[in-house]
Amino acid sequence: MSFFSSRKIDGRNGALPAIWSAFAQQAAWKDWVMAALLILNALTILVSARLAARDPDVVIVSPDGKSTYLPRSVASAALLDFIADQKQQPSDVTVVHFTKDFVRLALSANSTTIDATWAEALAMMGEKLRVRLSEESEAKRLLVSIRVLRVKSTVSIDDIVLTERTKDLLQVKATVHRTKSGLLDESRAAVEEHLEIDLVERIVPRTVLRPDGIEVVDWRFVPQSGPSAGASVTHAH
Fold first, then answer.
1. Which residue, 153, 151, 152, 171, is CA-closest to 163?
2. What is the pLDDT of residue 29?
3. Which range of residues forms the domain containing residue 178?
4. Which of 29, 30, 58, 196 has its CA at 20 to 30 Å from residue 170's CA atom?
């Protein structure tokens, strides 16, 4: 006696088509979910981009430190233009930092490093001043003289004061103490100089070469001691 039926399952009326139908419905449901997620992600990216591109509101800080929140929609065009200009203005701290770096490089008369430090100092100048001082130093063979003399110097900056600021220019005064001595001959008497330097710095757009947004367009110094005291000199070295 056989326990198995020899009747074949009809694919059109049996259970097999129902299973495949369920699979098809499930796959279609997954497709819709994925499509909805893609649309949601696209909307999120679009909203985030619009918010990121939106200009921020304004907070005005008075001299006594009190802050006033001002929605950008009610800020005047003049105020917004002023704020845009201020973003490009270097802070007093930046001016002092830039000036310290420039003075140390420009006044560092060391025989072993003069080529590098003078090149860096020239790079911090405006084009006209850079060309003029470069030509003067070449004509007077200043770098060659410093290398031959085998000297070293230490520069100590006593004070840097921002005396005047306009939209495009900065007037800065630096007080410096420089000591020159022999590079190898320790017995050579050291020469000390007290210098007062007046610098004119120009505000420029910030770039890779001008990260501080400043360049030196003129500088003069007056030795405070020695035989040349009282004479204003345009300094190349």
1. 171
2. 65
3. 91-234
4. 58
